[in-house]
Amino acid sequence: MRKGIGVSPGIVVGVAHRVESVFGSLEEQTLASPSEIPAEIERFDRAVAESALEIDSFVQKVSRELGPAEAEIFRSHAQIVSDPTLISRVHALIEEQQLTALSALQMVMHGFAAQFARIQQDFFRERMTDIRDVILRIESHLTRRTSEPIGHGGEAHNGSESVILVAHEILPSQAMSLGDLPIAGIVTELGGSTSHAAILARSRGIPAVSGLEGIMAEVESGDMMIVDGRDGMVLVRPDQEATSAYRKVQREFFNLKDRLVANRDLPARSADGAQVELLANINNIADAQAAQKVGAAGVGLFRTEYLFLTHHDVPDEEEQYEYYRQVLQSSPNESITIRTLDLGGDKTVPYLGRRGEPNPFMGWRSTRIFFENPKLFVTQLRAILRAGRHGKISILFPMITTLEELRFVNNLVKETKSDLRREGVPYGEHVKTGVMVEVPAAAVCIDAILRETDFISIGSNDLIQYLVAADRDNPKVAQLCEPLNPAIFRLLRTVFEACQRTGTPVTLCGEMAGQPRPFLVLFGLGLRKFSMSPAFIPTIKALLASVTTAQAERFAHHVLQLTTSEEIRSYLTARLHEVSATLEIFDTP
Questions:
Q1: Which of 77, 157, 312, 509 is catalytic?
Q2: Most exposed of 279, 298, 319, 468 (fewest Cβ within 10 Å)?
Q3: Active site residue 91
Q4: For the domain that residue 181 is a member of, what is the CATH number?
């Protein structure tokens, strides 16, 4: 039994599926006979040629969309894909060891990685990233899949058993490839309650535990596992008694979830009739459809960067317009708030280049990128505004820190509208613009921000991270990124009160919106718009129906008098039990 950080509630019994790296397992696969060698070499060479053609087209497209400097990264990829050393090493492994092209390519990849690991200079580390990108591209052509960066090393599960994904970490660019895998649980070595693995798990309503350092060394694919995402417990190769006991709890958990979904057509109201909007956070069309199924009132946060992360090159205006239109028309009430690109940090794309920043989460990311790449921003704005005539769309600017930044993006929106008008291109005339408050500086200066924006959306994940100066993906300090921290509630009260004074709509779209204990306080502080993973909407709707406004206000008032996270956790645990003991299983400790 191992204890980690419970990041997505629920219990699952299943078998492990290890994710060795972005290229899957190092297990060697050999050809059936030497007679297959010539055909296998030909298959590899064809994949290389297809990759080279693809890269050439990317050079042209990125140069056209963003400029020649941004296309330079793909020019270096064109050199790597035709590198004689890479090709000859793969040929040699196929000929001499009778490896499949895929296994030979993976072996060469890990050989390069070992070589570059001994070199400290940033230049060579970045070069290794380029090599990895190119090899992944060749691999995708070999396997005739557009992209499968993780989990393709063969089926790890037996029969109908649930799959539990075990990984060192899950990056945002990898997360999007998990949609078609039958994953019922996630266990990672890195990350905390607001890591990308955690957000992915909660968005799909599956139990998950993070921060289990060393778990990859203890688990083999096919091992039976139990994951308790509420208490953060993981059992590896449990005995029959434990397996039977947890299977019973698992059935009870999923039966309760099924019963809660039945409230999809009921209004989101408190026990005394206070109306609340429960909105959904989504990444793609499938998430929008999931939001429909659970009865969300609309989409409060559409993260557009995942469209870019799943493209090898920059999506052009027509691609983006069509995609945003489809998401809009798949969303509840055809109402969505679209967040502009939030790239940077651990969400990177090759066509924006790579920078060896010592602290990328506080560096060149999100809206800050647009100061150097206004063309990228304008292309996205044009696509969003055009899609705005098909329904209700709002634009949300992330990572706004200063009033100067807000004025810059607001002016770009005005100029883009003028350009569309002059060109005779139809667009949504009534698209509103808002600020995502996730930098403490914006929260402190909220009064100035409110004078120049239509609405506010609070990104509590980053706001907490920056407020407590702790990396939410680092298990050694992730415990500091605590949504029950007294500082976050006091700061949120300041923002809520400012919005109430000016009549500015405010939504909270961070992960704490969908957690029962923080929800009680947020509702008591006067918040009436919440955006969360679709899987949590039925739970929060049921909790809302169990509490009165007066109760929640009393809870919030008491919490604001407390001085430690532990005091707040203890108090709200008791209040949640008092209001609805049944729903305690859906909150993490």
A1: 509
A2: 319
A3: no
A4: 3.50.30.10
